[in-house]
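Incident review: delayed structure delivery

Summary: a single-chain prediction request sat in the queue longer than the usual turnaround. Root cause was a stuck worker, restarted by the on-call engineer. No data loss occurred. The affected request and its eventual output are reproduced below so the record is complete for anyone auditing the incident later.

Affected input:
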Amino acid sequence: MSTTYELHGIVGAPDVLEPLREQFPHARPSLLDGAELALVPLCEQLFHDIDLPDFTNGPDWAFDRLSSGVAAMLTAASRVGPVAYLEADYAGGLGRQSAVAWLDCHVVYGPDVLLPDEPFPVSTADPHSGSPIVKALRYLGVQAVGSADEFVLLGLGRYRSTRDWCDAWTPF
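Output delivered after worker restart:
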């Protein structure tokens, strides 16, 4: 049996994500574990609400749903505090992940991508170690605790797909 995991999401403090929630009714932030952060899953409808038409992804673009509209919205949100965009797509242990983070309207991390043919990096106390998602979460102030890396600490494995995050949403 193959294990799959897929995520397209925006992570930031609730006050950073509040304007997004107010502007787009399909933006549904869920509080994450172990930190004062929330995840807004970038479900299909929200992506289409934010996306700017006629934006073409180049062949080397590391993201499926980080369009110019999404990037512009996250750049603006970063005036309030750090915000990250995360993607992961795995099936049977093979896949890719990518991440980028903004603060004060500037990219402070990434874009970074881990391709299917690259070994999965082990997270250590070194801030430069770990996967793209783990390193982006560090820009949001998340720190590993014991053997739990930043991804595990926040509970990002709680659901196995973006759609599951959207379906499980309850307001806070």
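Verification: The two ends are 35 Å apart (CA to CA).
Action items: add queue-age alerting; document worker restart procedure.
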